[in-house]
Amino acid sequence: MANILAVDDDEDLCTLLKRALERDGHQVTVLKSGGEIREQHLRWADCIVLDVMMPGEDGFETCRRIRGLADCPIVFLTAKTEEADILTGLGIGGDDYLTKPFRLGELRARIAAHLRREQRIPQNRVRRAGLDFDLGERAVYRQGNLVRLTKGEYGICEYLALHAGQTFSKEQIYEAVFGWEGTSDESAVTEHVKNIRAKLKKEGVSPIETVWGIGYRWLREEQIESGS
């Protein structure tokens, strides 16, 4: 499943795109103009389908504005069919250009190909259990929204998430996250995990499992999906 952002002022077309792409298992957010795109959308989106001829900020202007912030494929979907327009769209950072009228199956196939080929999650970001970890920023996002964790909570989350499926004792987690210079002890890990679980539960995810008598582990994707 991917997160798709569709931007078009044609309400009927947006409804069609949303239904078709959701049947492919994607989560789709629809906006009616490029000016509505905010940074949280760009953090969340795995692919952007962008019209060109929209009131206010047109698609080309939008692409120029967001390209430096959006590390995902941008697919233009537009009635502008001139070669110069196509070259402009691709030249300013678009990854693909599909002209209207278009075949829905072709659009779905192109989006699937971009998602499959590009794997556009940035080098310093990884996704685990529906959460995006920005390793450079040391922050966690859920669908583009910041999950507010303390420094220690983030450290535990990152450590477990990057070693999904492996079980670690509280002592191992404490040493890995806080080091020998830590001012507390491994009992702090229990409290941190309690707080992490409460915060992630509000986001609809529960990826940390207690392994009784040993410690904790971050569930692998297939374990989360199967509910084990």
Automatic annotation (TrEMBL):
- What is one GO biological process annotated to this record? regulation of DNA-templated transcription
**What are the protein's GO molecular function terms?**
phosphorelay response regulator activity; transcription cis-regulatory region binding
The Response regulatory domain extends over 3-115
Q: Which domain of life is it from?
A: Bacteria
Xref: Pfam families: Response_reg, Trans_reg_C
- Annotated DNA-binding ranges come to 123-220
The yes or no answer to whether the keyword Transcription is present is yes
Alphabetical GO CC annotations of the entry are:
cytosol; protein-DNA complex
Q: Which UniProt keywords apply?
A: DNA-binding, Phosphoprotein, Transcription, Transcription regulation
Q: RNA-binding among the record's keywords?
A: no
What residues bear 4-aspartylphosphate in this entry? D51
Q: Give all residue intervals belonging to the OmpR/PhoB-type domain.
A: 123-220
Tell me, what does this protein do in biology? Answer: May play the central regulatory role in sporulation. It may be an element of the effector pathway responsible for the activation of sporulation genes in response to nutritional stress. Spo0A may act in concert with spo0H (a sigma factor) to control the expression of some genes that are critical to the sporulation process.
Name assigned to this protein: Stage 0 sporulation protein A homolog
